[in-house]
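hey
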C-alpha cells in the first residue's frame, strides 16, 4: 500500500478538512464585519458544499477501489477500506452532517460561527475514519477526532451554564472511556501481534479465546458503550442533550451514532461470529445482549419521568441504542475462515440482511432525531424553555411545526406507516431470522413491549401540542430555511415509510453480488 492509495482512500476526509479551513478563512478573513445572519448563512452553506465535495470524493474513491470483504486486498494490513457497509454509513454521515448544518441558520447561540462549522466538519471527518477503519490505531485516532469535536460543540453556547456543565461531564466521561478503549486495544495487540481486525480474528479463531481476551473485550465494550450511550455508560447523555446547542445535540445524536454503530458492525462481522476452534461468540454476543436489554428497560422507564423534552430525547436515544445493539449481538452467520471463497451463500445473505437492518435503523433514526431537535430548538428559542408545557397549543401557534413534531415522534415510537415502524420491523425480523431459540425471541418480545411504553411518553408531548390549551397563543415563528428543512425531514420520514424499499435498495446497492 503506497501513499497514493492512502490519499485516494482518505480523499473524503481530506475534502472535509479543506472545507473546514476554507470556512475559517472566509469567516475570519472576509466576513469579520458582516452581520451575524450573513456569517451564519455563508458558513453553513460552505459547510454543506464541503459535505457535497466529500460525498463526490467518496463515490469516486469507492468506485475506483477493488476491495471486498473484511478489509483485505493484496495487503493484509490495509488500514482503511471500502467494504460493503462502509459506503452506506459514510454517505449517511455526510448527508446527516449537511442537514445538521442547515439547523444552524437562524440561530444566535454563538458569534464564532466559522469555528463552529469547522469543528463540525472535522468531527465528521473523524466519523468517516471510524466508519471505514479496519485497524485499531486508525479506529482510536478517528474516535478521538470525533470525540474532541463533540466536546467542543457541546460547550459552544458560552452564555449557557448548562452547556459548560454538560461539556465538562462529557469530556470527563469521554476521557475515561478512551482510557478503557485504548487499554483493551493494547490487550488485543498483545494477544495477536497485529492491530488489523481481520488478523486479530484469525489469531483468536486459531488459538481459541482466553481469559485475557474476555478482559480486553469488556474494556472495549466499556469504551464503545460510552460512544453509543448504552446502560451503564449512558450518564453523560441526558446532560449533554439538554445543555448542548440544538444543532450540536442533533449532530451528537445522529452522526456520532452512525459512525460508532458502523464500527460495531465491523467488529460483529469478525469477533462475534462463531469460527473454527473459537468459542468466543457466546461470551461476546452475550455481553451485548445484556447491555441491549438494560438500555431498553432503563432508557424507556427513565424517559417516562422527564419534564424536559431534550432529556426525554436523550433517554429515548439510550433505548434506541439498545434496539440496535440487539441487532448487532445476533449479526452472525456461519461464515468461513478463508475469505469470500469459504463463505456459505445462505449465511452470507443472512449476515447482509442483518447489517442492512442495522444500517437502515441508524440512518432513519439519525434523520428523525435531527428533525426532532430542530423542532425543540424553535420552540425553546420562542418560549425560553424545553419543558413539556412549552409545547402547549403548538398546533395553533405554528401548525406546520406541530405537524412535523407529530410525524417525527410517531416515527420514533414505531407507528406505521412511518419509517420508524419499518426500521424496528426489519431489525427484529433480522434477529429472529438469523437466530432461532428462546433467547432472541424473549429479547425481541422485550423490545416490542418497551416500544409500546415509549409511545406513552411521546404522546405526552403530542398531547400538549394538540389537545391541551395554550397559556399563551402568541404565534411561534421559525426561520423559513429551518422550517423548510424540518418539513422536508418529515416528508422524507413519511415517504420512506410508505416506500421502505427505496432506502433498503439503496443500502443493498453497496453490497457485493452473491
Amino acid at each position: 500500500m503506497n501513499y497514493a492509495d492512502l490519499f485516494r482512500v482518505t480523499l473524503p476526509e481530506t475534502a472535509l478538512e479543506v472545507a473546514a479551513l476554507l470556512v475559517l478563512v472566509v469567516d475570519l478573513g472576509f466576513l469579520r464585519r458582516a452581520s451575524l445572519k450573513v456569517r451564519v448563512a455563508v458558513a453553513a452553506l460552505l459547510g454543506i458544499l464541503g459535505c457535497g465535495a466529500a460525498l463526490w470524493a467518496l463515490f469516486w474513491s469507492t468506485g475506483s477501489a477493488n476491495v471486498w470483504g473484511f478489509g483485505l486486498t493484496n495487503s493484509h494490513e490495509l488500514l482503511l477500506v471500502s467494504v460493503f457497509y462502509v459506503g452506506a454509513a459514510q454517505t449517511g454521515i455526510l448527508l446527516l452532517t449537511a442537514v445538521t448544518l442547515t439547523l444552524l441558520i437562524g440561530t444566535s447561540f454563538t458569534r464564532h460561527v466559522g469555528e463552529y462549522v469547522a469543528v463540525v466538519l472535522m468531527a465528521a471527518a473523524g466519523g468517516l475514519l471510524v466508519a471505514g477503519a479496519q485497524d485499531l490505531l486508525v479506529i482510536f485516532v478517528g474516535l478521538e477526532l470525533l470525540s474532541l469535536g463533540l466536546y467542543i460543540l457541546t460547550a459552544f453556547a458560552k452564555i449557557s451554564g448548562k452547556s459548560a456543565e454538560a461539556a465538562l461531564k462529557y469530556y470527563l466521561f469521554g476521557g475515561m472511556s478512551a482510557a478503557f478503549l485504548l487499554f483493551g486495544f493494547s490487550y488485543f495487540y498483545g494477544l495477536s501481534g497485529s492491530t488489523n481486525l481481520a488478523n486479530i480474528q484469525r489469531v483468536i479463531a486459531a488459538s481459541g479465546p482466553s481469559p485475557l481476551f474476555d478482559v480486553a473485550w469488556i474494556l472495549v465494550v466499556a469504551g464503545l458503550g460510552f460512544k453509543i450511550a448504552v446502560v451503564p455508560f449512558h450518564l453523560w447523555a441526558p446532560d449533554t442533550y439538554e445543555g448542548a446547542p440544538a444543532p450540536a445535540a442533533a449532530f451528537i445524536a445522529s452522526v456520532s451514532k452512525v459512525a460508532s454503530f458502523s464500527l460495531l458492525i465491523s467488529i460483529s462481522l469478525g469477533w462475534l461470529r462463531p469460527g473454527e476452534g473459537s468459542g468466543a461468540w457466546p461470551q461476546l454476543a452475550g455481553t451485548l445482549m445484556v447491555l441491549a436489554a438494560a438500555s431498553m428497560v432503563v432508557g424507556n422507564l427513565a424517559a417516562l419521568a422527564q419534564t424536559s423534552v431534550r432529556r426525554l430525547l436523550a433517554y429515548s436515544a439510550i433505548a434506541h441504542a439498545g434496539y440496535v445493539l440487539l441487532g448487532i449481538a445476533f449479526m452472525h452467520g456461519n461464515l468461513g475462515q478463508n475469505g469470500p471463497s469459504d463463505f456459505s451463500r445462505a449465511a452470507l445473505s443472512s449476515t447482509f440482511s442483518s447489517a442492512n437492518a442495522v444500517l437502515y435503523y441508524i440512518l432513519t433514526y439519525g434523520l428523525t432525531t435531527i428533525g426532532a431537535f430542530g423542532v425543540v430548538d424553535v420552540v425553546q428559542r420562542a418560549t425560553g424553555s424545553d419543558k413539556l408545557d412549552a409545547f402547549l397549543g403548538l398546533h395553533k401557534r405554528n401548525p406546520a411545526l406541530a405537524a412535523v413534531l407529530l410525524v417525527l415522534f410517531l416515527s420514533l415510537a414505531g407507528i406505521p406507516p412511518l419509517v420508524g415502524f419499518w426500521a424496528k420491523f426489519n431489525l427484529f425480523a433480522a434477529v429472529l431470522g438469523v437466530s432461532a431459540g428462546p433467547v432472541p425471541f424473549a429479547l425481541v418480545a422485550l423490545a416490542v413491549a418497551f416500544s409500546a411504553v415509549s409511545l406513552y411518553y411521546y404522546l405526552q408531548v403530542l398531547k400538549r401540542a394538540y389537545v391541551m390549551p395554550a397559556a399563551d397563543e402568541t404565534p411561534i415563528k421559525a426561520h423559513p430555511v429551518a422550517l423548510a428543512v424540518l418539513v422536508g425531514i418529515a416528508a422524507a420520514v413519511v415517504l420512506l415509510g410508505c416506500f421502505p424499499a427505496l432506502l433498503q435498495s439503496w443500502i443493498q446497492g453497496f453490497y457485493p453480488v452473491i
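Residues 345-383 form the longest helix (39 residues). The chain has 20 helices and no strands.
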